[in-house]
Amino acid sequence: MKIIETALQNLCVSTGIKAEIEVDPALMKHFGADTVIRLHSMGIDKGFRVMKHSEVHDLSTLIASTSIRLDQPDIADSIIIANYVSPKMKELLVSRGIHYLETAGNCHIQADGLFLHIDGKKTLPYRQSDKNLAFSTTGMKVILALLVSPKLAGRSYRELASAANVALGSIGKVLQDLEQLEYLQTVGGRRVLNRPEELLNHWLDNYQSTLFEDNFLGRYTLKDGMLPDQCIVSGVADQTTGIGRVLYTDLLPSQFESKFGLERDEAGDVFVLKRFWGDGELIATENQVNPLLNFADWFSMLSFGDFTEEQQEIINEAIHIWTTKLKDQIKKELDAEMAEAKALERNHPEPLWDKKRIAKELGVSPGTVDNLRRRGQLKSIYVGKRVLFNPEEVQKLINR
Fold first, then answer.
1. Domain 130-203 is found in CATH 3.40.190.290
2. Which of 70, 115, 279, 303 is the 20 to 30 Å CA partner of 217?
């Protein structure tokens, strides 16, 4: 709802047109509408069925759903309200007669007695309006690492920073913001992901305007039609479909163009991005990226709007399959983490000890405690930046 409110406020500032939000459960249920808005003043009184971009990632479904007309005479159109709509997507929406409105106030609304087209206003990403790092480029890297490997939520700041390829000093702030947004919780002294499906949707909604665009190096065409085996790729489908691919690289354009046989082409089917992740689990077999990143890259390529209907159907079918698999995979890993955390909370109600307390109890130096932990002789967990120990584990070590 905050996205809609911000967009309508900025639209009013730009045009003087006032708007009201009408939440109608019946419309939401029967027509898939999040909300209905009514624009009024200056002789205008018109309602629009809102389809938030953040809830619909399937382009064909999005376009088809907005073509539905409601029965009420004063609610005749649908509108997409989003934090950000890419230029290519704007062109596509306008060509299909679909209205859009960004939070910054940029819009294209053309209906009976009403024509509004505003562009060029600086976008106001969710991460900035909320004044947090969670959905900044840095935060998006951290969330990606957590979604790919939920167990990282309970690991050290250093390990998470390494997997996400972000500065160690930024981890604490990102995790704090995620906790405030209730995407992280503490169970048994361990951080665990919370509401992962919602976090996944929110991450996908922000992916293109952060990680994809910040690392986008250009579109290319393959000179010989084949990518080298050593390339890290995403968005790969049956080569006969002609659907684009995403190539990740650490090389400069002058280097990868000659090495991979690529030629710059604004309509090319190879999208080249700078590799942005660390040493996490983002590379699957045969140099394919993790399905989650593959999934996000499909959405970003769709926004360029230059795929045929047949290609869109192929992509949408793949996205449907991946959605189910991703959610099942994340849930399975998260359930395992939660079970372990709850067992720790249930079986070890005593307060956990820090390294100094352990060293004192064992009569050794803190450095020896570190050595015992590294050798696996003393189990530990991380709570924030702190390494903590279960007193019962210490007693087991003393009794050996």
1. no
2. 279
